[in-house]
Design a protein that fits this description.
With 280 residues, the chain is α+β, with helices and mostly antiparallel strands. It has helices at residues 2-28, 66-70, 103-109, 145-163, 168-176, 179-189, 213-251, 264-279, and strands at residues 31-36, 45-51, 61-65, 78-88, 91-101, 116-118, 121-124, 130-139, 194-204. It is built from 8 helices and 9 strands. Strands 1, 2, 3, 4, 5, 6, 7, 8 and 9 form a 9-stranded mixed beta sheet that branches.
Length: 280
Amino acid sequence: MAEENTNTNNRNAAKNAAKAAADLKKQKKKKWFPLVAPEAFQSRIIGEVLLEDASVLMGRTVKVNMMQLMGDMKRQSVNVMFKVTDIKEGKAFTQPVKFEISSFSLKRLAKREKDKLSDSFVVKTGDGKLVRIKPVMVTNAMTNGAVLATLVKTCRAVCKEIVNKSKFEQLIIDLVTYKFQKEVKEGLHKVYPLRNFDIRILELENKKKNETVEEEMIMKLKKVAEKKLADKAEEQEEEKKSSQEESDTSDEPVDNAPEPEASEEETDDEDSEEDSEEGK
């Protein structure tokens, strides 16, 4: 009996040893594969993954803080998500798919006695990619509903105009450097001064959608309004020219009018006066 137990223990020990050796051998096959950012981010290494086969990295995403990537403290609230799109020579190459700012940074935007506006809409980039934009606006003071509605509409129009001209990768760079936010804020300043303006999220839209229909209507209304303003300015210019011409005409000197012909009665009186003088 004791001998059987000893044999069983030996067999179990042998199995455990074989399993440990197999696991060790398997582990030795794993390699570190670096994740490389695109050229727009100077092809920096944004992470490493320990795997046996690099092909499993395809489609994976990684979120990177821009303070760590760019070494700039001002970017500590900005995160960009990268997606692995290609694998070459043991390296996983990525492309940006999403921009977002931290929730802590959003909380700092909220102020007392200020209006905070949020929106979400879809537009198309210059390279044909659909993106969803979620802006946040904070006014300098409390205002009325009409102004808030105009701010939202103008924000959509300005964002659409910029995004339609930009490639997606360049758009992400402009968001990280805050060039995009600054340009939109300047466009909104004509409607109402803003204390803060930021983009909460900008990401690729996976659903098959067209640009927001409301956005197209806003652009049409904007063009109609601009045409009306141009027509009104043209009318005012014509009225100004017309009034100027009338003023110039009234200032011109009046020509000497010809003397009126004498009437028959006046002629007879003159003849009688001449006769009386001759008689004298």
